[in-house]
User: Fold these one by one.
Assistant:
Number 1:
Amino acid sequence: MDFLAKIYITLKESVLDPQGTAVTHALHTLHYRTVSDVRVGKYMEVTLSAASTEEASTLIRGMCDDLLTNPVIEKYTYELVEA
Amino acid sequence: MPQSSPSQHVALASARTVKEEKIYRTFGLTDAEYEHIVELLGREPNYVEAGIFSVMWSEHCSYKSSRKVLRRFPTRGPQVLQGPGENAGIVDIGDGMAVAFKIESHNHPTAIEPYQGAATGVGGIIRDVFTMGARPIALLNSLRFGELDDAHTRYLFAESVAGIGGYGNCIGIPTVGGEVVFDNRYQHNPLVNAMCVGLMTHEEIATGSASGVGNPVLIVGTRTGRDGIHGATFASAEDPHAKERSAVQVGDPFMEKLLLEACLELIATGKVVGIQDMGAAGLTSSSAEMASRAGSGLTIDVTLVPCRETEMNSYEIMLSESQERMLVVMQQGEEDLAKQIFEKWDLQATVIGRVTTDGMLRVLEKGIVAAEIPVSALVDEAPVLDRLALRPAYLDELDENGPLFVESEDFAEQLYALLARPTIASKEWVYDQYDSMVRTETFVRPGSDAAVVGIPGTQKAIAIVTDGNGRHVYLDPYTGGVRAVAEAARNIVCSGAQPLAVTDCLNYGNPEKPEIFYQLERSADGLSVACEAFKTPVISGNVSLYNESHGVDIYPTPVIGMVGLLEDRDQLITSDWKADGDEIYVLGDLERAQKAGLGGSEYLFVKQPEQALHYRLPEFDLKAEVALQACMLSLAKQGLVQSAHDVSDGGLLVALAESAIAGNLGANIHLDAVSGVERSLQYREVLSLMFGEGVGLIVITAKVGMTEALERAARAHEVPIRRIGNVSVSPVVRVSILDRLYIHAPIERLQVAWRGAIASWMRR
Amino acid sequence: MKCAVIQFPGSNCDVDALKAIEETTSQPVDLVWHTARDLSSYDLIVVPGGFSYGDYLRAGAIAKFAPAMKEVEKAAADGRFVLGICNGFQVLTESGLLEGALRRNDSLQFRCEMTELVVANHHTAFTRHYAVGERIVIPIAHGEGNYYADEQTLKKLKKHGQIVFRYAKEHNPNGSVDDIAGIVNERGNVLGMMPHPERAIHSRLGSADGRRLFTSILEVWGETHAAIQS
């Protein structure tokens, strides 16, 4: 089966996000006063084949832990859809 | 005229549509040009052929407006190993070593997408240099933007700087110098000119020539996509904003780093016949130019070109401007060698054609001839225009005398205001974003008169500078041209180096306006005369026209890139003051400086921004300047000088302040008796002396007791020299004339004004 | 002392490191390609600065999978010396040889400038020729040098004297926690630092303060080597 994994990577809450702070500030100067916080992250689409949803899930978690994220500062979530 | 009978298989089906629907017009070809093409081919061009002609005959590739003007430049000299016409020029620096260099504009792409526009400008110029077989060792950038009080300008500026850094830093070539000027004439049409210098031995020189029948033609580097199709035409269009963003290319510096290493490794094998960067007009111009230089032909099968996107047709493949690609002609049978080397660097090298004798550029697609054009028709027969030049009326309306200013102004405050002008202020905000030290040969980092880079394994170093003042050229195209070269050379000699040669980037407005073309012609005359005088031939360069927006043309802005040679790196001179008690001298005619006035000066633009363009630029004495620079060099070689700094933007006081800030030392300066007569000066004379930019001057410092030796050398060159004061450990710069103290400026205050200015704008 | 400098696709301070080691220690140095599978004969392995694999994904993230990095891990485990400079520091944290991570500079800009460092620990093989508390000038050139470690890790680093270099107070150029510029592993044979000592080996380059880092390694190596010999 072919799957499409949508992976969202962000910095952990405990890690300062200077890019997010800069964007927050910029939105405020553009008068979007109600914005209280912005966190900037990465979005990836990985297309893969696997025998089952469970297997695809395991593979994606493996990729994220091995390469796609740095667990010291980043966390991730993902969605799996059958392609 | 070359006659050709179309091969039987030429895909002519679309030729009729091209003609009847006048499709060639959408490519930027005029009706007359189309007729000429029909004449040259002896038939009507098909779609692909019309596309190929349109890019080859565009202003960007053919230099049709400027070609005649460029012929005026001196291009020869004993030091020149390769003059204009190749990817970059080359000069000899002795001991079997040579440097290759070139400057190029990327103005229009930057206006549309500043990060990628500036980045790919850097990428392109680097390829031009390593194509010659040289290892790139230094980058410089000459930038022009509007004033920083505009948010969009700040965006363009910040993104361009980030793009330049993003590319150069990643590839590992230090960005060692350049300049940034802010003036609203460039608000909607910023200039990004990038210069690259490379180092090589004489044996390593490679050229872009496709010779040897049957030799394989390879495309190497990244795969071809649809990016930048018609970029060359787009660069020649009047209003870049009207064009789509699709013509913007995206750079990949990592890929270019691999390409650089692979190409240098390949060239070192000695099996490369010719190699050429794919810049503007991609495969089309690289193949046509390589064949043209060798007087040969090329047959290319586009089906063999590795593509990034699906179903690309021959038109798209021939015109794509995907970055980080090169065209290589190898010796027959050496294809595999190329493939091996490129594989090591995770790159592709693919044979896509052969060299032929018939002088034709032949494009095959799935066995069918998609285009067949005599190379000479594309290159030699490209139109050369005789543009009309008319002296602009404004030149005759300029006021001879400077404006009258109300006296009793605070001079120190005026100095702080000048130092805080972004054009004059420290550019740290810019160059701290560039890796200026990688390769560990950068002896003088950005921010000095000229950057100085060591030649590994020798005592030698080269001094490099870019310089240009569009406002001066606007006020007096001829003199402005002379000054541009003189200033660049003066920066070089101030570091103790001997000027060698010039690369120029000619940025002008719309050449179809006779007044603009006059600016181009007259300033080119000035540049030529000065290049002769300083014995610095033009060995490479680039022309960027149609720099206009909303009907407003930029100032005529020739940017001079110059390289000089320092035989002994220990004789390097920098601009910072060195020690308490050192004596300060001015080399050059202070008496004239006091009379020349404020025309064209930054001071005038601070005081009277609306009126500033109404006053004439002071006359320029080229002969005196040549003597001044010869004198400076001889002082440097005799080791008489502790520091040297050229007087330019902002005038004498700014030059003094800059040396004080750099050395963190104060000074006591007396400008008495400058005119030879002890009298108090008129206010007008004081301003001219302190803030004028009319006369070539160099501020030097020397240890105590050198006066006689300095005066002797100056006399020998017939150059005036005057001692004006001493460097002092007390952190204050004092300037007086007779008993009046004009300036009492703590270095701290000078620093704050000069260092913080750009950063404080960019925090907004 | 046999030295190796690893070359990844995109490394660009490899030759600078080679020149600096040669000039300061007169020891033999080889450039080794990232595919190298046996680096067991080297006493010092340098993971140099640059943009390995374009720094795509995250700086240093892809390089950690190169075969040569397995050899670096072995060297670290054997107690041989490993020095990661700039991108090399990023590779070492990504591969877990050093604790923490390097984030984007807080200014969001690449910064290249001379920085003042304070030597925080001179009892390492890399710093014995410095004095503790000594201020030295070494340049930086990076966009992602903002060191991060959580509270617990930070405590541990301090407890074991693993913090070797700090940026001088008020001159932290990138937002690093505790002004950290360089750390060693617990054993003390692996150093990662953002500043470039190989660019500070001659006064005409603006500083010669980096020389002693290389001479320190040579001296320590000489002592252990002499001990083994006898």
Number 2:
Amino acid sequence: MNPKAIIEEILDTAQKLSLEKDRIRAIFQKSGVTLDGGMKVSAIAGDPMAVLKTLMDNLAEMAVVKISAKQIIRKVGINI
Amino acid sequence: MAETYNASDPIEVAPGVFHLGVQDAPNSFNNIPYVIVDGNEAALIDPGSAKPEFFNVVLEKVKKALKGDLKKIKHIIVQHQDPDLCAAIPLVEVHCAPDVTVHAPLEAKVLIQHYNFKSKLHPLDDDDTLVFGDNRKFVFAMTPYCHFVGSMVTYDTKHKIVFSSDAFGGFTGMTDLYAGPDYPLQLTSFLGQYLGSKRALEYALKRLEQINAAYGVNLIAPQHGCLIKKELIPAYLEAAHALQVGGEIDSLAAKHGVKLGG
């Protein structure tokens, strides 16, 4: 699975766990992931793997989402 | 019956069985105590957090469920030692019957004492029972290491409800009462990370299947997440059997070059 697909899966999971869409959007935005009005990934700024690592760091603000994201990246054999 | 819950009203999910859930939207980790009324007595299961924004909600809901008579609460049952279900004990006990007893798994007892409550603490072992009210019977089934050695679930023989504590819990900040389309992901996200042992999970699941086969289970009522109705229980059991747990160890072992056997 490529980093962009992983980022999309983390985004999808985040929205199934949390009602706080603005908070999710802000974390993805400051990590370099732009979301469109439908909360889908519209652009990734720079190397997707580097963005994924930054996103994982920033998700610490939403512990439950980060816990789930750790499981997603582990499933595909990535160890950040 | 309401399909969602709110900050003010208990929801009667079976006759005399009240869901006292508190939404935790910022953390996606709702907290659900239950109170069960039978005749002139009541039992409070996993009373919850000491944080005012949680405890005040629970207290108001209990008052409504018991029509103001909190002295009916003769029993407080805590199914393991975590603060999200035990921290409220010293706050709620002052409202309960003067002889209220706290029941907890034996292995959790040595930890639970540190919540500094005054009530008698009664240790439970596997297959112990509690009879209260008009001959209402609870059976306690230990589920060791799922996720603590002193963990258990409580089976209500009258309405065939399993109060499952963290087992079958899920990460969610929504107010859905019952498991819906997103609950498999919410459940597996939670259990996948918070359970360390597949063997412990399998024991708990197979024990639950035994109880279901022998006596029937109409409802699973976890302490986080959503209620699981009878018709969905087989699907959730299947999902739980397929769950990979303890993966955090593998991540850290890989990171630090630690070789693990088995």
